[in-house]
Design goal:
By secondary structure, this protein is α+β, with helices and mostly antiparallel strands. It has helices at about 75-90, 145-160, and strands at about 10-15, 20-25, 30, 45-50, 60-65, 95, 100-105, 110-115, 125-130, 135-140, 160. It is built from two helices and eleven strands; from the N terminus they run βββββαβββββαβ. Strands 3, 4, 5, 6, 7, 8, 9 and 10 form an eight-stranded antiparallel β-sheet that branches.
Length: about 170
């Protein structure tokens, strides 16, 4: 696991004190100030940030502190927890269109899962990245500019760095 953050070589997006950072993708602007999270669970996110190319064409990155060390959990248990969280959120107007697919982001275990908003306004690919007691969620959502979001999402996934802060 990474112990220090060293995002450089571009405009660094890192909320103050956050255990993650990433580079602003070309053609995007920092939209953190305009961010309103419509879905917040009983375990609210921290260190929220967003980069955008349009109103609903946005990449949102949020951090969730975990109550247990994800490194000690099997991938199947983590995948089931991701699916359970998404099922709880479906009441807020989106539908999960698939099951969690294993991935690797920033050298850490991750799962990607596609969702669609029920009124068809946007669709998204969400990445859940696990590092110790830290989970980083990267939500790549597009309405009109799917190509830009796809390119921007690949850039964020490539540049993101995550540390698990000391307890």
């Amino acid at each position: 696991h990474r112990t220090t953050l060293d995002c450089s070589g571009g405009t660094v997006i890192r909320p103050r004190g956050a255990p993650d950072c990433y580079l602003l993708p070309a053609g995007f602007h920092d939209a953190t100030d305009q961010l309103t999270l419509t879905y917040q669970s009983a375990n609210p996110s921290q260190y929220d940030s967003a980069v955008a190319v349009g109103v609903h064409d946005v990449i949102i990155v949020v951090v969730y502190p975990l109550r247990q060390d994800s490194d000690a959990l099997s991938s199947s248990v983590l995948a089931e927890q991701v699916a359970a969280v998404l099922r709880q959120g479906e009441s807020s107007g989106f539908t999960v269109v698939g099951s969690p697919t294993p991935a690797t982001v920033a050298g850490d275990r991750a799962f990607q899962i596609p969702i669609k908003q029920n009124d068809g306004q946007f669709s998204a690919m969400i990445y859940f990245v696990f590092n110790g007691f830290t989970e980083v969620e990267i939500n790549c959502q597009s309405a009109q500019r799917a190509g830009d979001i796809s390119r921007g999402c690949a850039s964020v996934l490539k540049s993101v760095q995550i540390v698990d802060p000391p307890r």
